[in-house]
Design goal:
- There is one protein chain.
- The chain is built from 14 helices and 8 strands.
- The protein is mainly alpha-helical and about 400 residues long.
- It has 3 domains: about 55 residues, no CATH class; about 110 residues, Orthogonal Bundle (DNA polymerase, domain 1); about 160 residues, hpI Integrase, Chain A.
- A hairpin with a 2-residue loop joins strand 1 and strand 2.
- The chain is elongated, with a radius of gyration of 31 Å.
- It starts with a strand and ends with a helix.
């Protein structure tokens, strides 16, 4: 609130409250003496001063979009996992170079629409050798709508931070057009393909065969399987818990982190007798390996490791390469390690297992997300629903 008082005829003092000092806690005021013909004009000038001061506090000087990206990533670094940090840095360095020198206040929705359209048309890798320096260049191939959408997510989040910091009044990316992303149905491997994969894995490496088997029966992600320790396995109860994941750190080395960002305890996933027997044999082999090295196998040793003490996990990238070799040995094509997770979900859902059970087993936070992805795996239930409704209509006709 502002106040005015006449110091002498025609000279008025304007006084506006600007909050407390963050260090001392004392109230702060800004005063200014102006010429005014009367109290009404002085109050008008005081209101203008108050608006000016508020705008000055709410709108700190904005810089370039590149500076905003650097500040935003530095702010989020303490919360992001190493893999999230690496992905954001990759998108910024690979795709957002043309926007780095643009002033944040000059970025409009039209600016982003034009930029996304150029990426969709020629934002892919340059097809000329040597490659062009400019990006996007005229020799670049088209970029998929899904990739443009991922780039937009980064741009929108950074500009939203600029809104929170008061550098811009509104987010120009909120209504930007990224193009339509076509969702494709998940096509998991068949039962016969999975059996061939397991047989090929046993021929290549017994330890890796256990890894593939757990991926099939639990639907766990690669990182969760690599972080699995014997303290997470209860062979007597036939259960396993995935409480951590292994990801690539910023230096490229594998690091462990909690599987979930919340405080929820990882649920116990039940194992069938075949999986339990495979784990028992795997534990015996690992115990003998440690004994041969002259050490005792710790109770919390990793399951999938080349270290006799079970301290260093397999690298995620090496694990995926090993899986691709097994796929080739099995004579299959186009099967990814993550497809085994799809196999678990579609097999259980099509067999009538409750949706919440499948979501809990696979670690999906929301069952609705699971249903969105795998709704096509429920044709029998859809047919049963049609029969129920048809029965109601038939009774009415009778």
């Amino acid at each position: 609130m502002g106040s005015v008082r006449e110091r002498r005829p025609g000279r008025w003092e304007l006084r506006v409250y600007v909050g407390r000092d963050p260090l001392t806690g004392r109230q702060r005021y800004v005063s200014r003496v102006v010429a005014a013909s009367g109290k009404r004009e002085a109050e008008r000038r005081c209101a203008e001063l108050e608006v000016e001061l508020r705008a000055g506090r709410a709108a700190p000087k904005a810089g370039t979009f590149g500076a905003l990206l650097d500040q935003w990533i530095a702010t989020k670094a303490r919360r992001w996992s190493p893999s999230t940090m690496r992905e954001h840095q990759r998108i910024v360095s690979r795709y957002l170079g043309p926007l780095r020198d643009v002033d944040v206040t000059r970025i409009t929705t039209q600016t982003l629409d034009t930029f996304y359209a150029e990426l969709a048309e020629r934002g892919g890798a340059c097809r000329r050798r040597p490659a062009c320096v400019d990006y996007p260049c005229e020799h670049g191939g088209p970029l998929s709508a899904a990739t443009v959408r991922r780039i937009h997510v980064v741009v929108r989040a950074a500009l939203e931070q600029a809104v929170k910091w008061g550098q811009i009044a509104r987010n120009p990316a909120a209504h930007a057009e990224t193009g339509e992303v076509v969702e494709h149905e998940v096509t998991p491997p068949s039962d016969a393909d999975v059996v061939r994969l397991l047989a090929a894995a046993e021929q290549v490496d017994e330890r890796f065969a256990v890894f593939v088997l757990l991926a099939v029966v639990t639907g766990a992600r690669r990182g969760a399987l690599l972080a699995l320790r014997w303290s997470d396995v209860d062979l007597d109860a036939g259960t396993v818990r995935f409480s951590r994941v292994v990801v690539h750190g910023l230096d490229g080395q594998p690091v462990e982190r909690p599987a979930t960002k919340g405080k929820r305890t990882a649920p116990a996933v039940a194992l069938d007798p075949v999986a339990v027997a495979a784990l028992e044999a795997h534990h015996d082999r690992q115990f003998e390996l440690a004994l041969a090295a002259g050490v005792a196998l710790p109770a919390d040793a990793l399951l999938f490791t080349d270290d006799p003490l079970g301290r260093r996990p397999w690298r995620p990238d090496n694990t995926s390469r090993r899986f691709r070799r097994v796929v080739a040995e099995a004579g299959l094509t186009g099967v990814r390690l993550h497809d085994l997770r799809h196999f678990m979900a579609t097999t259980l859902l099509s067999s009538g297992v409750d949706l919440s059970v499948v979501a809990r087993r696979g670690g999906w936070a929301r069952a609705a997300t699971l249903l969105d992805v795998y709704a096509h795996a429920l044709p029998d239930r859809d047919r049963a629903a049609a029969d129920v409704l048809g029965g109601v209509i038939a009774r009415r006709d009778r």
